[in-house]
Amino acid sequence: MSAYNFLSNRFIKELDQENDLFDVLKKLKFIELFLENETNHLQKNNMVVLYGNWGSGKTTLINSIKKEIDKDIYYPVIFNAWRYEKDENLTYSLFDFLLDELKIDDENKKKIKKFASIFLKGSLKSIKVIGNIAEEYDKYLEKVSSEKSLYKKISEFETEFQSLLKSTLGNDKILLVFVDDLDRCNPENVLDLLSSIKLFFTLGEESSLNEPKSQVIYFCGLDKNAVIKAAELKYKDKIKGEEFLEKIFDISFNMPKNYNTEKFVEKSQLFEEHKSIISNFLNSIEFTNPRHLKKIFNKYQLLSLIKEKFTNEFGELIPEIIRNKKGYIFDTILVLFFLILYEFNYPKYIEIKTYENKFENYIDYLVFSSSKPISRQEKSNMINNLKADKQFFTFRNISNLKLLYSGDTPNNFHRFLSFFTPRINKDFEFKSIQGDFRYFEQFEYSENHILIDFCRFIYDHIKEITIEEPDQYLSKNYNLFTLFDMVETLL
Asked: Given 42, 178, 309, 330, which is the most exposed site by the fewest CB atoms within 10 A?
């Protein structure tokens, strides 16, 4: 690729086969089908959520549903919560937004706002815990029942709001309210908004079966883990985060947890004939979030540009990454991994940077299966066999397959991989067996998966990424430690 084409971080306005790089269209079609064919069920269970990590494509999906949904059934609108978060009351901003979208005339708007302002402004200040939502609503009404005029106005608000919906939409059309960009909001504001919607905006008229049936359906996009943490922090042991969400939402969908990056990598045109192994690498370390990928690929392009245009000033900081039909896959994978750690997993970046300290940490926790006591010096001697001096990490050495597999156990390949192993906080044994991965599997996986997964990827693919002719290798004098200078200087 001769031109640099930096990737947009904005959502895709029209999702189609060409730009659906993460196979989201099937999810889109299913949700559309469900919304259009289950209106009766949805009107009785009208809080819907789409869970997905930040940057997973929720906004793209929501905008596509709004565009494609049957307009004879639904009147869809999107409330971008983050845009209005600076307002004193996000719930009241949502209500104001709905009135504008419904094109309510000034007289009726003023009338219903008068009712709503009494309890929507600061409505949740008196509600300390969201447990049983219906129960909390009853308690709220009970609290104000001594003030008959206030109680009456709440009832009048419910009646007036339903009347406005019917006068605007008719008896059959449903207002479909997408609440987006909640991920960007203060977590406590998110909790308050969700609770307010459940308490005050999900009421409806009684159906023939005496069941509430709402003319409004709310469809929220959320990072589930973020809301769970916020709920548990706010309500502490009074309610679990999962329970909070279960009481708020009646129906849930999920964005994919992991995406296949093959189409995205191919579309980027950054890696030429190496696109397959780059995709394999990203999938192996579970780095598949669309927004994160775009950010890393843009930074990679920036490094490529610097390497081409500012070689004299900064070129020595960057190895020969793939660009414009030149460069090496070995260099490229290492650079991508450092970018990912530096941008999205900084604690692990620091762990591998503090190389010497890491091996001191290993000495502290090294144990042996035999009962014979062993001195710290003996432990140190064994650990130091796994450690290498800085000069060992020149690319001439670590990209040379013959050199990596030479030597005793632990061999040079284990020494190379041990550069990327994490610190530990539990006893471990010295299982460094030539040609065996068991040494690396001893490390705690859950908190260190990106480092262990990277070691496994290198272990499984070393023959595919090493250099066949080390003497002709343009990066042969580049040192792995220089990658720390690269990211910290240029990014």
From this structure: 309
Identify the CATH class of 25-254: alpha beta
Q: List all residues 6 or more positions away from 344 whose beta carbon is below 8 Å from its beta carbon.
A: 287, 292
Side chain identity at residue 21, one-letter code? L
Q: Which residues contact 205 (CB under 8 A, 6 or more apart)?
A: 162, 212, 213, 215
DSSP reduced 3-state for 53: coil
User: At a CB cut-off of 8 Å and minimum separation 6, what does 56 contact?
Assistant: 255, 256, 289, 290, 291
> What is d(CA 262, CA 21) in angstroms, rounded to the nearest whole number?
8
Enumerate helices (H) and strands (E) in the chain, giving the number of each.
Answer: 24, 9
- Could you tell me the sign of the dihedral formed by the alpha carbons of 149, 150, 151, 153, in that order? positive
Tell me whether strands 205-206 and 212-213 are parallel, antiparallel or unpaired.
Answer: antiparallel
The pLDDT tens digits of the residues spanning 227-257 come to 888 888 877 765 677 888 888 898 999 987 7
Domain boundaries, the chain: 25-254, 262-490
Closest by CA to 29, choosing from 77, 69, 58, is 69
d(CA 203, CA 133): 12
Query: For the chain, which residues score pLDDT lower than 70?
Result: 1-4, 6-22, 88, 115-155, 200-212, 237-239, 369-372, 407-410, 430-436
- Distance of alpha carbon 358 from alpha carbon 388, whole angstroms: 12
